Every structure is written in C-alpha cells, then in structure tokens.
Amino acid sequence: MGNPILIAENLSIAFGGVTALDSINLSIGEGEILCLAGENGSGKSTFVKIVSGVYAPSAGSVAIDGGRVDSQGPRAAISAGVQVIYQDLSLFDHLSVAENIAMNRMMHDGSKLVKRSTMRTIAAEQLARVGVELPLDDRVSTLSVANKQLVAIARALSMDARILFMDEPTTALTTNEVKRLLKIVLELKSRGLSIVFISHKLDEVFAIADRITIFRDGHKVGDFTAAELDEESLSFHMTGRRVSYARYHRQIDDETPLLQVQGLGRTGNYQDVTFDLRNGDILGLTGLLGAGRTELALSLFGLNAPDSGRILIGGKPVSIRSPLQAMEHGIALVPEDRKTQGLFGAQSIRNNVSSNVIDSLLGRTRLIDRKAEQALAVATVHEMNVNNKNVDTLVQNLSGGNQQKVVIGKWIARHPTIFILDSPTVGIDIGSKQEIYDRIHALAASGIGVIVISDEPEEIIANCNRVLVMHEGAVLDRFEEADLRAPEFKDRLATIISDPEAHVKHATAALTTITPGDQR
Amino acid sequence: MKTSPFRAVFNRRSTAMEKYLLAIIIGYIVIVALKNPLFFSVETLFDMLRSGSGVMILAIGVLIVLVSGGIDVSFTAIAVVSGYTSVKLMLALGIDNILFAFMVSIVVGCLLGAINALIIYRFNLPTLIVTLGTASAYHGLMATVLGTKSFPTGAMPQSLVNFGSTDLIVINSDTGRYGLTVFLPIVIAVLVLTWFILYRTMLGRQVFAVGSNEESASRLGINIFRTKLFVYAYSGALSGLMGIIYFSELKYVNPVSLVGTELMIIAAVVIGGAKLTGGEGTILGTILGIVVVQLFQSTLVFLGLGSSWNDLFFGAVLLISLGVMYYRQRIQDRKNLVFATA
Asked: Which end of chain A is more exposed for a tag (fewer CB within 10 A), N or C?
C-alpha cells in the first residue's frame, strides 16, 4: 500500500436514532484497489455518502491528503479529488453524452457559458482515457447500461479524481462487459488512481482487490489482503454465518412433461427453441444478456408473441396471448427488473402480495375480504422470511433482497405449476440469496416445474438439474443432471457462457447429432 | 454528410413533435386560405402577432419551469398582480412612464416568482400545489390591499395606451390602417435571451440537469436552490413583463381577467413537446404550440365557425398529437420489450 491518501477516523452516523455506521477507521493508499464488501444495509453506501459529502457524520473525520473534507458538501469533496460512481450512475438521460461527461468539469472550472466544441473536446479526451469511443451527441437515454457506465467513469475521470468510488458497478452488466470494466479499473490503478470498489460479487472482488475491507451492520469487521480470504471466509465475515448453497437434486419419478416448447421462435429474438419441463425440474436457462433468454421467458408469459413453433402444457397445445392467459395456465414469471416490472413500489407489502390473487380474496359481497388479505400477506412475509414483518410497509422501503422475496411470495400465493424466475438474485446479498435458493428448491421438490434464467454459473449449478445454454437466440448446448454433477462442470459452464463463439465451433458437430426428436 | 438547414441553425435535429406541429399549422393555413382568401393577408399576420405576443412570453416562462421538472399555475396571477401593482403605483405617484411601468412590474413578478421557489425548496412541496396556493394568495392579497377596480382607457396611465398603439411599420390599405406591433421586438428579445440562457450558459444546462434528475444533479454539486430560484424568478419576471404588455394591448386595466387561462397555455407548451416529467422541451416547439393556439383563436371566424369551435379544435389537436406521439413510443417500447413507461 502506497502513501495513505484518504484516512477516515472514528466515523459514526445515526439516522433517527438508528446507528448506521459505528466508529469506522479506514485508510486507502495511493494506487490501491480497496474492495468494500458487506451485505445490503451493512453501511457501505452510507460510508461512501459521508466521504463524498452527501451526509455529514455525527462523529469522526475524513481527511484527504491530510486536509479535512467532512461536512462541507459534495463540492468540497469533489475538489479534494473524490469521485463517486453511484449504482444508479446518476446520469442525465435528457442530456447528450458530451454534456454528461463535461458538465462536472465545466461547473468545477466555474464556467458560466457553454461552448459545444469545448464540451465535445473534454468528453472526447476523457473517453479516450477510458479507451472507448461513444457517439458524443447522442442522448444518454439511448445508450446501453454498459455504455452509460463508461460515460459515468469518463465523467468521474474528468475531475482529476484521486479516489474513485464505484458502488456496485457490475450489477446490470453481462459477463463480457464486466471483464471490460475490470480491465479498465486495473488500468486506472496502474496510473496511480485509488479505487474503492463496492460489490458483493465475490469473484470480482478477488479478481481485482489489493485489500478487502468488510462491513457488517455498521461495523468494520476487518481489513484483509486478498490472499488472506477465500470465497467461504469472505462470505462468513460478511454474513456472520457459514453460507453454503445446497445443490438441488430432482427426486420425483415421473417423466411426463409439464411444459413442452417445440421449435419456438420469434424473428429477431430467438429461433427453434425446443425443451421439456417436468414436475420437479429446475431448468437453467443461461447465456449472455441478449442471448434471447428473457425474450423467450416473456413469450411463455404472453408478452412477446412467438411467430413459429408451439407450446404444450400438460400435453395440449396452448396459445398464450396475454399474462392473464399465462396465469390461467398456471405460469408465473418473476421478471428481470423487479423495480419497474415486479412490484408496485409505492404500495404496501400487503397490496403487493394480494394484487395477484385478488379474485380469491373476494367475499360473498364481491368486496375484498380485508381479513383474508391481511392473513395472506402476513403468512407470505413469514413464509418468505421478509425482514420487515409489518405488511403496511411500503415495498420501496425494503432492501433489494426483501423486495425480491415479496415478488416471489406474491407468485407463490397463486400456487403456480410453472414458475419462471428471470435473474432472481441480481443485486441481492448472500444471505437473502441462500434463502431464495432454498425456496426455489422447496417449490420444485413440491412438484412444480421451475425455470431459472441466470448468467451466473454458480447460481445455475446450485439450483438446476438441467441446463439450456442459449447464444444469439439459438440453443447452443444442453446439459442433464449427470453432466452437472461432474466436478469441473462449473468452470466449463463459465467458459461457455463468457465465450460462446468458441463453443459454437466446438459444438456444431455435436449439436447436429442431437435433433429435437431425441427429447424424451 | 449534408447538414439540413434546420441543423445548421439549431445545432440539433428537429423533434418529431415540431414536425407534426409544423404539418398541422401548414395544413390548417392552406385550408383556411382556400376557404377564405381574405385570411391570407398582412393584416391577419400583424393582428395575430399583436394578440399573441403576451401569451408567447408567458409560454416561455412555462417552458423553463417545465424543463426544470416543475409545473407553475401561478404565472397568470403573477402577471395580473405585477401589472396592476405597477399601474396603481404609477397613478399614486403620478409617474406616467412606460419604462417605469415595466420596471416595477418585472421586479414585482420576479419577487413573487422567488417566493414560489422559496416555498417549493424550503418545504419540498410539489410545485403544482405550491403555485395553486400562491396563485390564489397573490391575487387575493392584491384584491384586499389594492382593490380590484378596473381602469378604462381614459383613466389608465397614458403611456401604456400610447405604448400599446405604437407600431414599427404601418400599412395603409382600403380597409384601414394596420401596424406591426412594438411588442414583436420584445418577444424576439425574450426568445433569444431564453435560448441563450438555456443552451449557452451553465445555468441553463443545470436547469435541464435538475429537471432530468434532481438527485443526480445535487450529487454533482449543482446548487438546486439557486437553480430553482432562477427558474421561478425568471418565469415571474416574464409574467411581470407580460402584465404590462397585456394591459397596453387591451388598453384597459382589468385585474380580474387573464387568471384562468393558465392551463390552456401550459397545454400549448406541452403540445410543443415539453414533458411534465421534466428535462425536455424546446423553444421552437413552444413557439409552434402557441402558434397553433393563436391560429385557432383568431382564424376560426374565417371558416365561418364560432369561437366555441376553438376549444374543440384545440382539445382535439392536443389529444391527437400527444396520443400519436405516446402511442408510437409505446409500440417502440414493446418492440424493445419495455413494458413500464417511465
């Protein structure tokens, strides 16, 4: 570790009498990558907000290069060289790429007037430092998440940043995009920038961290070098308990398919997808973002009409034209983006849970039976172990993991027979992850068919007994339980997911021998 | 690549809304001109410029508030209150000078706008609620302190009457004498100034930034209060400016008129492409939106239709143009598998 560039001493803060951070001591060296690890609510984000001047600490101090910067607002922190890339990126969708990148710097320089050419020059320079090219005049709203991330990085660099905080930068990125980002982070480090990387994806933490500082419940558990920890000990320090994901094994002895998808396709989305789902199956649908997984799931849920092939449920061909029809066939979908598609954020847990089953809650008068509704919501929060048992709590005030438990719980309340979960644990901490996996296993064991969409090999291995790898809309490869049990399978799957092109060549020969007729 | 003339002037592509509006305006003008050749004259143009000037200035104030992510319904009240205060002061002090009239009215408007900003920021209240409240409060305060006595042409300050009749160019024809109003350079100055502020100053870009995402703006160190103070004070000042133009144009000072037309003006700005969710809106779109309103208001008579048709036409344009826009957006979203509209 080089000279300490940032030193935080005895930092504490409380909100409404609840201590969010308790006497945190932390130092960051020049040109060092420090990973801040901890579960949701452990105080990582609060720490960042204090250092960046958004919150004033109730005790303690922050010094950068020996000068105190606390409680003077964001501008002072920015001047001292602190830059934060928030999880939501904090970009302006309505402004252009150039404006988003250059605004920070121009404000700081005290510019009163705006010159388009100056903005473009600043933006182009910063993007060159990151090593990418983006259309400078395009609105930020038209960019992909990965490119937005690069805009945010370029904006941060424009300020001669000395310390760059990155709050969960990889949650919305595909495996390849994560690789590119980590490469950029390492490059920035080699130029002497200090980086604080916040993530709860353990593999990323180990890939880049010089040091790892772990927070739990507002306390610092300790500082570790990357070499001192492994995945198991890291998650132990984060959660305070041993976490291991139990593997799922199908116990049901019934080969009748519940759902059959035959040669299903939709132009531009995916083509010729064939698979069966039996009772008690957990089918993993994997591949990079854009492989057609989500599009396929939406088709099964009536939101993206296929234009070829057919879907059979219980052996009978069905046409699913709307989510309502999908639900009548016993299909449930936990969508990819819980905030905009999975939940009514401004409504209570109770209303969210009952929204799916409102028909069954009607009394004799066709009015909602409030007692039954309350009972259902209470039963669901207990069953799913949502941390806040008060069902009047607004869903938007729950943490990501608990929100996801509500989404899953509200679908379980409908007793689906085919349960599709699209990226069920994105942005969710380890503890909640384990609980959600346990629920999925229990559901499958009870005899329903589950489809889990994920690009995390670990998640697929822990949950699935069959796997379908998709690439550019086509089924690239499929694996059965026997394949999954092979000891090196996780690495093999990771390789296929991250570099499908290589596998295409490799597998073309094998694929041609497996025709849909081979399906049981 | 060849640059379109539009791009050369505005340094951006025209928005879809601007194209729609232009098509509607041209189509409408052609229909009216075919029905009644009398419409196609310099007199009609001069007449519309005169009657549309005040509304145009108010609309620019509305635009800047919408861009900042707020909505202001107090601007008509501010216009009347500032204008009336100015007239009362002139009569009381015996100062009959048009510059004094503008100065007082603009300062009062600016102050009232600043009070809006202060309340909005201090109590973190929705802007609609605050301005609904202040619209009533400002008007009520004026009524109790200054009264609501109206002044006909003979009793109001002579300088206002003279100003309202000043023409830049005069054309004498068989049907009478028509002049190009002196309001026009004021309107053009307001348009140019506002364009400059919004697109060529950091302050203007910050208004867009705050309207786009307030939380992000504050994280960047943008002073939210200063930005909002500017937005509402500027909108107030424009209202004050309009108050004097309004009384001068009518040559009649009536402090209970104008209030009640604010939603129509907001609607015109929204037709012009400004979004109630903030961050979006153009000056050209606003001009076109106001032109549509003015066209209907002043030309339905050429089609032999009564003024009640005006509301119907305007409502239809609002619903159809916005409906088409948002429907196309939805189709696009569905194609991209986006089901939630932000």
From this structure: C
How many of the other CB atoms lie within 10 Å of CB of B152?
A: 10
Angle at A120 between CA A144 and CA A118, to 5 degrees: 150
Radius of gyration of chain A (CA): 25
Determine contact, residues A406/A437, Cβ cutoff 8 Å. no
Partner-chain contact B203 A112, CB within 8 Å: yes
Q: Do A93 and B219 touch (CB under 8 A)?
A: no
pLDDT tens digits, A189-205 = 998 899 999 887 777 88
The values of phi and psi at residue A366, to 5°, are: 65, 20
| Cβ-nearest to A111 among B202, B280, B337 | B202
Flag whether residue B218 sits within 8 Å of chain A, measured between CB atoms.
yes
Torsion region of A119: left, alpha or beta (phi above 0 gives left; psi -120 to 50 gives alpha): alpha
Q: Residue A335 falls within a domain, yes or no?
A: no
Indicate if A12 and A141 belong to the same structural domain.
yes
Residues A10 and A153 in one domain: yes
> Whole-angstrom Cα distance, residue A484 to residue A282?
12
Same domain, A408 and A426: no
Q: What is the CATH number of the domain that holds A174?
A: 3.40.50.300
Residues of B with Cβ-Cβ distance to A296 under 8 angstroms: none
Same-domain status, A47 and A132: yes
* Domain-located, residue A34: yes
Residue A471 lies in a domain: yes
pTM of the model: 0.79
Q: What is the pLDDT of residue A519?
A: 44
Task: Give residue B341's pLDDT.
Answer: 47
CB contacts, 8 Å: B226 with chain A: none
Q: What is the DSSP code (8-state) at residue A341?
A: I
Query: In a 10 Å sphere around its CB, with 0-12 CB exposed, 13-18 middle and 19+ buried, how is residue A365 labelled?
Result: exposed
* Residue B134 structure tokens: 């202040």
Both A366 and A456 in one domain: the answer is: no
Chain A residues with beta carbon closer than 8 angstroms to that of B276: none
Torsion over CA: B45, B50, B55, B57 (sign): positive
Collect all residues of chain A within an 8 Å Cβ-Cβ radius of residue B199.
114
pLDDT number for residue B67: 96
CA of B330 vs chain A CAs: smallest distance (Å): 14
- All structural domains of chain B, each given as residue ranges with its CATH number in brackets, are 5-314 (1.10.3470)
How many structural domains does chain A have?
3
What six digits make up the tokens of A73? 């607002």
* Last residue in a domain, options A384, A415, A446: A415
The domain of A353 spans 341-415
Given A388, A415, A442, which residue is the final one in a domain?
A415
**What is the C-alpha to C-alpha distance for residues A213 and A226, in angstroms, rounded to an integer?**
10
